[in-house]
Write a structure and sequence with these properties.
The protein is an alpha/beta fold and about 425 residues long. It folds into 3 domains: about 150 residues, FAD/NAD(P)-binding domain (3-Layer(bba) Sandwich), CATH 3.50.50.60; about 90 residues, no CATH class; about 100 residues, Alpha-Beta Complex (Polyamine Oxidase, Chain A, domain 2), CATH 3.90.660.20. The strands form 5 sheets. Strands 7-6-16-17-18-15-19 form a 7-stranded mixed β-sheet, covered by helices on one side. Strands 9-2-1-13-20 form a 5-stranded parallel β-sheet. It has a 4-stranded mixed β-sheet with strand order 12-11-10-14. The longest helix has 26 residues. About 35% of the residues lie in helices and about 25% in strands.
Length: about 425
């Protein structure tokens, strides 16, 4: 019987995880990556003694098995952190999440937030038809108006009543009224949310995870950019003319990019690809001459006049990410095709607001900069999202293509989710007779 060909497109976390689990099942797969090194967005850049990731990449583990696997891949080099994050509001930093720490606000404002929450929870039978309604139904007017609505409009660049809400149930913390009342009386020792604890490599940045997976998979073919997937001939054509036949294809290429290279593509599927929307992230990484904000991990900003929605502190994830006595930041600003940013002016605005918000003391402290313009930051969960995604993935499956990962599967996934999805895909397929 003829041996079958299995190809993986993309050697980021998703593609390498799939290759890892396939190798464990004694299945060979050819892995193709368009860049000169593996990792995708899960890479780290070394510059002037600093190590910068492509924005914040933290490992959250809901399951012991995934934590154990990461520990094995990283050879035990993992640091566990208790989240120390904040929200910038009323010209000061209050502990995150806003919705359970507004007692740090002026008394009247805090009472307004609590009353609104209690009133909303008393009507918990209210139906949510969109993300805006869900915010009001879950948090009430005070929390909605002060943080939830402005922050999410700023992040998603989309009217919130055009977004669906189901994705938010897993990622947005919804404390009970009792938990919030308790926070008025005493400091909470047990943080809330899926990211209350997280892990990070002890040395080398997040790319150490990629290096660990790369050492445990078959050969990765670098500098191989797929430019066409011919469904009729079941082959992938690369930029240099290379052609590879496949019986099964695992793709981690961002879904909108995948739609550009598949031929033939029926009109209805082409239309579904066009309905996918996303926001992009302009990620500015900065080295600072002095150590700043010791122990803090990240801060959220909902203010319309401040360009960035999040600032994180690399040097508090691992001491190896910045020279001794210095600091390293990641600063994230979102934009979309309809709401672009002026890349010539954004740098100066970012530096100015880092100073006015107290993140840095002086712009002169900045001694190093590295910019990543990340086209696909987050899929936008609008009303077209679910039907378009379902139709596309069904079409791909019918043509022996499994599209997976945060961007290939077009879902808001944590790094653990990506690894678990890859394992599930491998376990769910009959691999007999594959090379």
């Amino acid at each position: 019987m003829r041996k079958k060909n299995l190809l993986i497109l993309g050697a980021g976390l998703s593609g390498l995880s799939a290759a890892y689990f396939l190798k464990r099942e004694k299945v060979r797969a050819k892995i193709f990556e368009k860049e000169a090194r593996p990792g995708g967005l899960c890479r780290s850049i070394r510059k002037q003694g600093f190590i910068f990731d492509f924005s914040g990449h933290l490992l959250h583990f809901r399951g012991k098995d995934t934590l154990s696997l990461a520990g094995k891949i990283l050879k035990g080099s993992l640091i566990r952190h208790k989240r120390d994050s904040y929200v910038y509001t009323f010209n000061k930093f209050i502990p995150y999440p806003f919705q359970s720490n507004f007692n740090y606000l002026p008394k009247g404002i805090a009472q307004q937030c609590l009353s609104g929450l209690i009133e909303a929870r008393a009507q918990n039978c209210l139906k949510s038809d969109n993300f805006l309604q869900w915010i009001h139904n879950k948090f009430g007017k005070g929390i909605a108006d002060l943080f939830m609505i402005p922050y999410n409009i700023k992040l998603w660049k989309t009217p919130l009543d055009r977004l669906e809400y189901r994705w938010a149930k897993r990622f947005i913390i919804t404390p009970t009224a009792r938990q919030i009342k308790g926070s008025f009386k005493e400091k909470r020792d047990k943080p809330l949310g899926y990211n209350s604890f997280f892990w990070y490599p002890e040395k080398g940045g997040i790319e150490e995870l990629i290096k660990g997976f790369s050492e445990n998979v078959n050969k990765i073919y670098l500098n191989n950019h797929a430019v066409e997937i011919d469904l009729s001939g079941k082959r992938v054509i690369f930029k240099d003319g290379r052609r590879e036949k496949f019986d099964k294809l695992i793709s981690t290429i961002p879904l909108p990019e995948l739609g550009k290279i598949i031929t033939p593509l029926p009109d209805d599927i082409r239309l579904s690809f066009k309905r996918l929307k996303w926001i992009s992230i302009y990620n500015v990484n900065l080295g600072v001459k002095t150590e700043i904000h010791p122990s803090r991990h990240w801060v959220y900003f909902a203010q319309k006049n401040i360009p960035f929605f999040r600032v994180g502190f690399f040097h508090n994830l691992s001491s190896c990410l910045a020279p001794s006595g210095q600091g390293a930041l990641y600063v994230d600003t979102s934009y979309s095709k309809d709401k672009p940013i002026d890349t010539r002016a954004i740098g100066a605005r970012i530096r100015r607001h880092l100073k006015t918000t107290g993140i840095i003391r002086s712009e002169d402290e900045i001694c190093c900069e590295h910019v990543n313009d990340i086209k696909y930051g987050y899929p936008v969960y609008d009303k077209d999202y679910a039907p378009a995604r379902k139709k596309i993935l069904n079409f791909l499956s019918e043509n022996d293509i499994t599209s997976c990962g945060r961007y290939g599967g077009w879902r808001y996934l944590s790094m653990e989710d990506v690894i678990l999805e890859a394992e599930k895909i491998v376990r769910g397929m009959p691999w007999k007779n594959y090379l």
